[in-house]
Specification:
Elements: E1 2-5, E2 17-21, E3 24-28, H1 37-45, E4 56-58, H2 64-67, H3 70-75, E5 81-85, H4 86-116, H5 128-136, E6 138-141, E7 147-148, E8 155-160, E9 168-176, E10 179-185, E11 208-212, H6 223-239, E12 243-247, H7 253-267, E13 275-278, H8 280-291, H9 298-307, E14 316-319, H10 322-327, E15 335-339, H11 349-356, E16 363-366, H12 375-380, E17 385-388, E18 391-394, E19 398-401, H13 411-418, E20 427-431, H14 435-447, E21 453-454, E22 461-463
Parallel strand pairs: 3-4, 4-5, 5-6, 10-11, 11-20, 12-15, 12-16, 13-14, 13-15, 16-19, 20-21
Antiparallel strand pairs: 1-2, 1-22, 2-3, 7-8, 8-9, 9-10, 17-18
This protein binds zinc ion (ZN).
Length: about 475
């Protein structure tokens, strides 16, 4: 078997790994690379292989850095199946359509400026039609059952990764020289005790493992600590007569925050107050969460038996259209406003932050990782004035952070996950991690006794036998 790492190599986006055995070639994930615009555009638009040579894609989950470049693959002639779990495929549909809309809108915006100075027009990375073609290639499989990979003489299996709805650990089994060889891919590995989802399945028995290492050098709080902290911040803000503004990604984090607030109201930790989810994409994602209770953990199932809908309660309003979104501004008194994106870089959250940041009664509450060079990160770092839509606003609102809502296993959990299979592993490859985190996890894996552990570079090929 030959592995080639065409993305998420010493970085956290653009997940894409090429697996070749005999005459078969499959891809694990086909994600968008995000980052510096010119570099990301070039990488996403120019696939480093012939899409027509591929037999199938196995998709770990619906985050755009894992599925977001599938339309480019199909646009370039890939005609095989894209296999994911049923929930992953349902979420991938809305994520790809949303991504195509962003690609088209961004290109139209740039072209407007380019037109003024007579520059050549750009084409979007892909269009809605390309996304729809990719969506038609999606084919669903259940967790835990072996299936034949369409178009290739290989078997594969999805195990629950506990990261977002439908997320999977992938196992690929192949025959080489009369021997059975198994490759595992962690996808993004979730955390134990996360709300809504089941715990990640134990590591499968495999010969070679591709493992994510987002938190390869760090520990984070347990999800169990997050809910009381979230409730406390909302309580304190409400006591001041203020609003709590929560920047949150539309997929997974928003559903988790809504469910957590619902639980806190039910338990009495929080008095009922108006809560708004101001995001069309979050509304769509929530609908898909509601369609897949079969993958919820026992606690969520029990909650549903008592209170019905984890993602809906009397004081909660989802807003889709722009007028309803603007109307939230006119509201007096305490409320919670959840909007995306989570790092305050784009989307409706910018308006809510702008309208509320100047009032000391309010709180901006961060519930996710804040990357460098984002407004979210600058606010967490304590800037006194924030620049939004070209204007400066004084930061008077309180800035708070709850970090236990992470959807990724931390260093200790990653190493604990690998430990039971360490003696059988012939090689472990760390992906989906910045260089420092990757190096730290490689070191940890070597300390477990896995000598052949490394963090591949972009385009690196490894022969596994
Ligand atoms: Zn993910």
């Amino acid at each position: 078997m030959r592995l080639t790492f065409w993305g998420a190599a010493r970085q956290v986006t653009g997940s894409m790994h090429w697996v070749e055995t005999g005459d078969s070639r499959i891809l694990l994930d086909c994600g968008l690379m995000q980052g510096h615009r010119a570099e990301a555009n070039a990488r996403n638009a120019n696939l480093p292989f012939a899409a027509t040579a591929l037999d199938a894609v196995l998709l770990s989950h619906a985050h755009v850095d894992h599925c977001g470049n599938l339309p480019t693959l199909v646009k370039n002639g890939f005609g095989g199946d894209i296999v994911g779990t049923h929930a992953t495929n349902d979420l991938t549909r809305i994520m790809l359509l949303d991504s195509a809309k962003i690609q088209e809108q961004d290109t139209a915006y740039l072209n407007k400026k380019r037109g003024l100075r007579g520059a050549e027009m750009l084409v979007p990375l892909y269009t809605r039609q390309d996304a729809e073609s990719a969506i038609r290639s999606l084919t669903g499989r259940a967790y835990d059952k072996w299936f034949n990979v369409p178009g290739a003489p290989l078997r594969a299996q999805f195990l629950d990764a506990g990261h977002i709805l439908g997320s999977a650990i992938t196992v690929v089994e192949m025959q080489e020289n009369g021997k059975t060889l198994r490759l595992g891919f962690s996808g993004d590995l979730g955390v134990k005790d996360k709300l809504i989802l089941r715990d990640p399945a134990p590591a499968p028995a495999v010969d070679y493992l591709i493992i994510e290492g987002t938190y390869g050098d760090r520990l984070h709080d347990s999800p169990r600590d997050s809910e009381p902290k979230l409730a406390r911040v909302i309580r304190e803000t409400t006591a001041r007569g203020g609003k709590t503004i929560i920047p949150s990604f539309a997929l997974d984090r928003t559903q988790e925050i809504v469910y957590s607030i619902h639980r806190s109201i039910q338990s009495g930790a929080l008095s009922p107050l108006p809560v708004f989810v101001d995001s069309p994409l979050a509304m769509d994602a929530t609908e898909i969460y509601r369609m897949h209770p079969e993958v919820f953990d026992a606690e969520t199932v029990a909650f549903m038996e008592r209170h019905e809908d984890p993602f809906g309660f009397r004081q909660l309003t989802y807003t889709r259209d722009v007028e309803a979104s603007k109307a939230i501004n006119d509201l007096d008194g305490p409320a919670v406003i959840i909007a995306s994106n989570g790092m305050v870089e784009a989307g409706r959250i910018l308006h809510h932050v702008k309208n509320n940041i100047g009032d000391a009664r309010n709180t901006i509450l961060f519930v996710g990782y804040q990357a460098e060079n984002t407004l979210g990160r600058r606010l967490v770092d304590g800037i006194k004035r924030a620049r939004i839509f070209g204007e400066e606003y004084p930061v008077r609102a309180r800035i708070e952070q709850v970090d236990g809502f992470s959807a990724h296993a931390d260093r200790a959990a990653l190493l604990d996950w690998v430990r039971p299979i360490r003696h059988e592993l012939k090689g472990v490859y760390v992906v989906h991690a910045e260089a420092d985190a990757a190096a730290a996890l490689v070191q940890g894996l070597r300390e477990l006794g896995i000598r052949n552990a490394l963090a591949p570079t972009y385009g690196q090929q490894i022969i596994c036998d």
